[in-house]
């Protein structure tokens, strides 16, 4: 190892010369500073999540917080947005794979969320290569030669890069400070900020972030304090960093104003992260005898609790001069089946049309082929205006009961159960093999969508309402019977692509589903399977 490690820092993974350009002594010293300053608070907040879950398990329902009523009633706005975040009508997302990043930046979308989270398997290789790719993308020097000879380089006009670090719950096991492994969130943030902020300032931009999976405003306060500290350390003007928070947990939905308020000097709005949101509802109410959702496919953006959440997010953002960005339809272009393809594209159009008409300022797409559809839907409403933040929604009145109106409860079917098993195992197999985003049955599947599949089965097994429409109760025995059938089908379909990773995935899926202790995130045990 050529790098001189700062005192107290260890790296428990291989370093190539290219990795050493990212893991420099100075960058690691910055990681260590953030760790020493904030790791204690991060742990307290994770511990507070456990306490909150116990309250929910005991039947307490969430509500808007009485202690922050003044913030909700107050007349404040977030700080002005930088020029390159004013127009976000189409945002493409994708993992930090070099070729895909170039494709995303060239896609015609206004912004590109470079994802170290839901769509990324956090192997050491992916994380550090991802930082190299981000560095080169910011400097517009990124290029790629595909093994088939195709060359990739950036167009003259590219999307603005927004980086999504890992959430507060994930660790970076390959780096320790004073003998403690470091937070994945702090690690991803620290490296991207340290290496790029000074350069970006010279071109009138900055590092922008998407912040995932927070459960409340105190977690947002921690991010804000990290930003303040980081900017001070590197002599960057306060308020330079901007961050969009994904509202993708049911608890955060009750604290949207407060989250914007905590980050008001650094905020670039909120995003409706629908897939983790559904997962969070299942997770938080998994012990509630009244709670039980229908087959995954039935939980669309138009069901009552999802509609309430989407409208409240929009109203809250615009009251605070903040962009409201819509989430992701999981539909993707379908090759070799024009009829199915047209249906999928129609689904994306309907999704983006609804968001644009409601008043959203932009929305996510999963694939470059969907950029024109989303662009048309938002441009139809926005015209030449960069956004519609000025559009207020006083007509929207969402109550706690609306957010908790968990319908539909039916149907739950054998096909829905089998599909959850099939998708869950395929996704986990891919994730353990190093790829965090895959097309399965013509839908985009990532960590968030797979969480819904596995948590639904856990909950159906344990809920009195977990009954198939033909009257059979969902049980461990029924799950195992269907699981055996799905594994046999997949083995036949995969042939020699059915590797040890897929065997591991099947046994991990069995554990996730049958263990009475609910596993908080599938990526936590999954992390033990990857380097
Ligand atoms: C819940 C959430 O968090 S949503 C956010 C996280 N999820 C995502 O970001 C989804 C990202 N999307 C993807 O990973 C992919 O689109 C998938 C896995 C869904 C589908 O992938 P594929 O079936 O391989 O796509 P397909 O074969 O049609 O790709 C065609 C081309 O588009 C590129 N492409 C596809 N999706 C993307 C993307 N999101 N960004 C950049 N390029 C992309 C492919 O690299 C390929 O490029 P090439 O022709 O130069 O080789
Ligand atoms: O991150 C987005 C989501 O839907 O989850
Ligand atoms: Mg998510």
UniProtKB/TrEMBL annotation:
Query: What UniProt keywords apply to this chain's record, in alphabetical order?
Result: Acyltransferase, Glyoxylate bypass, Transferase, Tricarboxylic acid cycle
Q: List the InterPro entries hit by this protein, alphabetically.
A: Malate_synth_C_sf, Malate_synth_sf, Malate_synthA, Malate_synthase_CS, Malate_synthase_TIM, MS_C, MS_N, MS_N_TIM-barrel_dom
What Pfam families does UniProt report for this protein, alphabetically? MS_C (PF20659), MS_N (PF20656), MS_TIM-barrel (PF01274)
Asked whether the keyword Protein transport is assigned, the reply is no
| Record pathway | Carbohydrate metabolism; glyoxylate cycle; (S)-malate from isocitrate: step 2/2
Pull one GO CC term from this UniProt entry: cytoplasm
Which stretches make up the Malate synthase C-terminal domain?
A: 412-529
Q: List each copy of the Malate synthase TIM barrel domain by range.
A: 160-405
PANTHER family noted in UniProt = MALATE SYNTHASE, MALATE SYNTHASE 1-RELATED
Family membership noted in the UniProt record: Belongs to the malate synthase family.
Q: List the protein's name.
A: Malate synthase
Provenance organism: Aquitalea magnusonii
